[in-house]
Design goal:
Number of helices: 8
Radius of gyration: 18 Å
Order of helices and strands: EHEHEHEHEHEEEHEHH
Largest sheet: 7 strands, parallel
Strand order of the largest sheet: 3-2-1-4-5-6-9
Number of strands: 9
Helix content: 40-55%
Structural class: alpha/beta
Amino acid sequence: MASIAIITGATGGLGQEFVREVLKENIDEIWAAARNEEKLGRLKEQFGDKLRPVRCDLSNADDLTALKALIDAEKPDIRLLINNAGMGDMGESFGFSDDAVSKTADLNCKAVCLLCNHAIPFMSKGARILNISSASSFQPVPYINLYAASKAFVRSYTRALNEELKRKGIICTAVCPGWIDTEMLSKEYKGKPVKFPGLVSPNRVAVQALRDSAKGKDMSVCTLFVKYEHLLSKLLPQKVLMKIWMYGIRDYV
């Protein structure tokens, strides 16, 4: 039985760094799931034969069903599941289309839960799940409200799932980075360049997340800057934190 890792959103900046780091682990094959076949092809060229491209749009119910069918058919030994795929934009919540709201909820929340449920029957003691949340999950965040709320869901779901899986010896870790320097990050908003305090490389996040999950932590917080943000979220009222946030983005809204 082949031991595998499943990494979603594998062609993105953070996803590629997870692929790079997981290749260093004792895994027979990495199932790299993403929407774009061309990018998946380049990913395989870059990382070699251990990488198995799986074209899958996780916001699409049919594609999720197909991925579940593939897992059921091959019955692999899943050692790692990294739910990295996600989406989010800055803007007024009421300005998002019905389709954008549905896709964000489906990809950031629903797909995470379903993939965990599909993978867990094929996981055994020592297996790990990493669900990518965000530092934005620590508090309500106006103007990235939909994204932040979805990541708060992921953080809460993941930490509770970790408790449920303890008897099976499976670790579930909510990864809560701050701003990551990837193509997903909008470099400007309404024509103005955006400043990102505490910006960090995707490799640093991936390395820290895998290290923390191996230690059995239910949450991974990368960099002292984000740990400070997490501490403030416990000490200060959320209304105060939102006022601080709104002051910080005053030039953009």
